Amino acid sequence: MNAIVLMVVGLGVMSLGYLFYSKFIAEKIYRLDPDFVTPAHELRDGVDYVPTNRFVLWGHHFTSVAGAAPIVGPAIAVIWGWGPAFVWVVLGTVFFAGVHDFGALWASVRNKGKSIGMLSGSFIGRRGRNLFLVVIFLLLLMVNAAFAVVIANLLVSTPTSVIPTWGAIAVALVIGQLIYRYKVSLLWPSIGGVLVLYGLILVGNQYPVVLPETILGLNARSFWIVLLFGYAGVASLLPVWVLLQPRDYINGLQLFVGLGILYTAVLLSSPTIVAPALNDAVPAGTPSLVPLLFVTIACGAISGFHGLVSSGTTSKQLDKETDARFVGYFGAVGEGMLSLAAIICCTAGFATLVDWQAVYSSFGSGGVAAFVNGGDTLLVNGLGIPEQLGATMLATMAILFAATTMDTGLRLQRFVVQEAGEIAGLKIGTLAGTVIALVVCMALAFGAGADGSGGMVIWPLFGTTNQLLAALTLSIISVILIKKGRNPWFTLVPLCFLLVMSLYALVVQLKQFYEAGNWLLLGMDVVILVAALWVTFEAFIAMKKGRDPTHADADARP
Hints:
Its main location: membrane. The chain has helices at about 5-30, 40, 55-65, 70-75, 80-110, 115-125, 125-155, 160-180, 185-205, 220-235, 245-270, 290-295, 305-310, 325-350, 355-360, 365-385, 385-425, 430-445, 460-485, 490-515, 520-545, and strands spanning about 215, 220. The chain is an all-alpha fold. The protein has a two-stranded antiparallel sheet. The N and C termini lie far apart (about 50 Å).
């Protein structure tokens, strides 16, 4: 099949989902109110609570949720064939991710910007909240520790990406000052910032930065990991408008332009998909498609991490409640577009089926390297971009997606630490919360792997934990809808599907960890499984109570 067909159908369905389905959800289910005073105004503090232009906020939200996972997941999952991955990404974006991300943002905004973990306490009880926070903390630990490794590996393997990666921070600092301190119109900083960022890619392509084998007793990858955690810690401490928000915004523009370039290359090169639609000759050791597809592709179809971002940082910056549809739902569409691009790169970026099979010789192969190499081939064939320059651009895209997720993730982990302290009766300040989050992440990174790669040790549990968190987030949104007397089926259906697939996957992995004698992952699997079942039980009790008129909340609007 020609890849253009996949591109047109995929982008078309996601566009229709935003234009029509998200409008229905906004008007009939969540019932957005343009006059509602958002937490960004009510609790404005100039640090975390900052009313923000919806385009800037969309950039922050999009790049925060679109880390390396929407590339890695599809790049691995196409081993079962492009068909299942394509259907799950497209339909998952429209009916699962959009509703989930949008709903988490709406629920948080309606409750003074509380995170989804704290909302669980309000709507399903204290026991559920405590267990929910355990799942959230473990997920953020996985994301922060593992993404540092992913970024460091790319900085080492593609040294031409070093200058544009770190140069983006300086560009973001300047844009933040121009917009907030000097009140410059958004247009010119946006255009100038994107041009500078792509200029940095050209400079980086000419001047690769290769670190010495040993720096301060660390190898190159370990040094990058330490530096990345240092950057994330500083970003977590600064007011959101100084670095985090403008960096995410300008990176979002750059990355969206990059996606446009990639899709244009597909249109002009008209490549053939060499991979099978359904692979009936998967390599030995490949797990079954059901349920593993639905946890291998998490980000890009639906992701619990998105609910953490929506309710953790995004809800505190929403200017008007009606902006939630654009920021939340369209943010999910943006990530779906990235995952669709990854599927095309990893199935149409090869000359023959034999070449594709050589890369996908075992489960877990492919990944970011397949995306970069396949996408580079499409850029060369479609636009005549020099081979190394194309690889630099795609590696920089992957790094920036992961880096903006990592700095937001550490900020979110600081929020979780502070919330846990609040539950325990302790007041933990911003600096102390950030230090605790950093210490835990780095303890995992360097404790479970002397070179800083320890984050990858617990990565096999990321997909299932992520999808379970999405299901639990949907359960809270469903409880809120039921209490307000609104139709909950648009969240209940995705909730039930995700819950079944995620619990099924956890049980499958439990067996694998036991047979492999991996007691760390086995123990964590049991903890996550028990916590998820307990929170689910509490949530369904809350739903049952919510249907009782004596327990229902008064709805502000008819």
